[in-house]
Design brief:
It is a single chain. This protein has 413 residues and is an all-alpha fold. Helices cover 81% and strands 0% of the residues. The longest helix is centred in the first third of the chain and has 32 residues, at 10-41.
């Protein structure tokens, strides 16, 4: 059964609630920014540039944020990031209220969001193992993923309808959720251990990337997930699909954005009840292949119901990959390196999401929306085939904990 007993721990419940509110706020925000940018410009490339604006800060700050997450109070970092997010979204609300919205203002706010998320993500990922025992980490990850995806369902759907009241109302609602999220986390009890300050050398800063590169299972799972979503992710094009192909409105865009999350939450609940125990490598590769097929079906669809179903299946497949990747990364990383490894991991995630949106926008501008989506799906299938051969240790990986066990056995000899 789902390990909801974790929620009886007040400390974990505060963290859990704060993350739910933050995810909900960000998902509402994504609908507003996407629809408004396409409304202002009518350009697929502009939608892609929003993703690029969020990704570049993560790329440029990778080495810095990992070091900060390992050396300073992770909770303080997260709270500061939530405050910046709230102020950024409040700027969008005020801009709409006074009819001053321009594409440049949206790009500027996207950069601010990218900066805040670049600092927040490593601190968040590194904080979770400090809140729950290691033997319950996989259950905590599944529970967090389930709740996150539930908000990814509710956020776009509700955001699409709130947008009908005005973009300023949507942005104000998102701001309020970010503020409430910060208040929950402010009450979190986290025993920060002051560590001896490590010398800030280039070798130390690159430690996360070096660790990932030397661990073929972690490298294979992270890069597979990255390239799959980078090529197959079509979320940046959803406003175009909703408006021009399916001929629906903001409410339809909200439903389309919610569909992958609905599939993901169904799968995460299943995985929480029946955790993956064997053949995790093969399962991950098959899940990414299904992700690619679902992307192709979505790209060829001209029916709202079929499009929603394809996105639902895409979300289910993606969740399998996410749970395996996130669990492997956290279980195999020493706590003193989790900030740097999480920062490096965030770059892969950012590449697959924000940079993937840019890639989708560029290919759609060059070849058209439908060809761009289909090409991405085909590319995902190609990546699965290649990764099966260049990362045999990932394909042959049996259990989540195998590597930890091997290291433990080695250390006792």
């Amino acid at each position: 059964m789902t390990d909801t007993s974790l929620l009886k721990d007040n400390n974990f419940f505060r963290f859990f609630s704060g993350q739910i509110l933050s995810t909900f706020a960000f998902q509402m925000l994504s609908v507003g920014i996407g629809w408004q940018m396409y409304d202002l410009t009518g350009s697929a490339l502009s939608l892609g540039l929003v993703g690029l604006a969020q990704f570049l800060p993560q790329l440029l700050l990778t080495l810095v944020v990992g070091h900060i997450a390992d050396q300073y109070n992770r909770l303080t970092i997260i709270l500061a990031c939530r405050a910046l997010m709230a102020l950024t979204v409040l700027t969008l609300a005020i801009g709409n209220l006074y009819h001053q919205m321009t594409p440049h203002l949206i790009y500027g706010c996207a950069i601010a969001l990218g900066i805040s998320r670049s600092f927040e993500m490593p601190a968040l990922q590194a904080l979770v193992p400090n809140l729950v025992p290691s033997n319950r980490l996989a259950s905590a990850m599944a529970l967090m993923a389930s709740a996150r995806e539930a908000m990814v369902i509710a956020g776009p759907a509700i955001g699409g309808f709130i947008y009908l009241l005005g973009p300023d109302v949507l942005y104000a609602s998102s701001t309020l959720c970010f503020v409430l999220s910060g208040l929950f986390l402010y009450r979190l009890h986290y025993n920060h251990t002051v560590k001896a300050k490590a010398p800030v050398t280039l070798t130390y800063l690159l430690g996360g990337l070096t660790y990932i590169r030397r661990n073929p299972v972690v490298m294979g799972s992270i890069s597979l997930d990255m390239f799959a979503v980078l090529l197959g992710g079509a979320t940046a094009l959803l406003p175009i699909v909703a408006k021009d192909i399916l001929e629906t409105g903001p409410w339809g865009l909200g439903i389309l954005r919610s569909a992958p999350a609905l599939g993901a939450v169904v799968m995460s609940i299943y995985l929480a009840r029946r955790p993956l125990k064997r053949n995790v490598g093969k399962i991950m590769l098959r899940a990414v292949a299904i992700f690619g097929v679902a992307t192709i079906v979505f790209g060829l669809s001209t029916n709202l119901y079929l499009s929603v179903f394809a996105l639902f299946m895409l979300g289910m497949a993606d969740m399998i990959s996410v749970v395996i990747r996130s669990t492997l990364v956290q279980l195999e990383t020493p706590d003193e390196m989790r900030g740097r490894v999480s920062a490096a991991n965030s770059i892969f995630i950012g590449s697959s999401n924000q940079l993937g949106e840019f890639e989708s926008g560029v290919t759609a501008a060059l070849f058209g929306t439908v060809p761009a989506i289909v090409i991405g799906g085909v590319g995902t299938l190609v990546v699965v085939g290649i990764w099966t051969f260049i990362f045999p240790s990932l394909a042959q990986r049996d259990t989540m904990e195998a590597h930890i066990t091997n290291k433990a056995n080695t250390s006792t000899k």
